Description:
CATH architecture: 3-Layer(aba) Sandwich
Number of domains: 1
Structural class: alpha/beta
Amino acid sequence: MPGDNDIIDKHLVSVESELRDLFAANxxxxxxxxRSAAHQFGNGTPYCDLSKAHMHDPDFVIFQHFRSTLDxxxxxxxxxxxxxxSIWVSGSPARVTSFEALGVHETSLQAxxxxxxxxxxxxxxxxxxxxxxxxxxxxxxNGHGLSAMATASADxxxxxxxxNTIRFGALEDLQAGQDVELDxxxxxxxxxxxxxxLAVYADLSDDxxxxxxxxxxxxxxxxxxxxxxxxxxTQRPLLLIESGCYHTEMIGKLASMGYRIARRxxxxxxxxxxxxxxxxxxxxxxxxxSDYQDIGLMPHPGFGAGLSILRRVRRYFQNPGHKKATx
Length: 327
């Protein structure tokens, strides 16, 4: 039986071509937004019982180190609220403020709000580099919209969109040899900068501090950073950015603001010279390193060297030549 990647490789070109054709056919049709209402959307409401919920992304284990109820974590690209749930599953009691561009997720976000009250706030608004209105496209497979794959129509990475459409929407049907009906849904959303959104919607008290920002906006991450100058320079939060390793200009901008790259190992972050190819990239401000060491998020100086010495000592005593010489 063909594996997942075999199926994706077999259908990738044809799916990409069909999505491009659908986009071209609908781009000038003013009724494209009305037709989107005929599709089903959303990923379902996340499980709100933290004792039974799971962490949807292992990188979210890092948030466990933010242990104060006065910590605020900002979630850009909330989807159905799964990031907030994962933050709390990690063990963090922080308050979460989420921003989501697509109104199709509001029912799920309302459910998270109902379950967690003041611990969670959300706003249906897109986050970008300026105040504007942005058009998003959502791939649709057999009438079900893959809202997690929504992307701005002005910046479509067609090959990635096609691959994700197959992997997360059409794979089982294609493996079974069944026909797959593709479509595109269109939605418009108001967009503002993260600095403006936080000033208007975050309701940050004098005692609270923004300790981390997670950004997952399907390729528009550099636009979010471009509109977040104030919060990055004043709060200097930890950043978790999906696909951050691929945006070289954004990495340069963050470096000019004092941010450095880190990689996750277990439940800690370690500085590294360059962004490794991975789903997520962490960025920390150099002035926060000692704070992160104090809370265990990053190792203290000399910790790595100490481990290295212990490993060398262990290898020495495990060496057969050493054992022979001492017998």
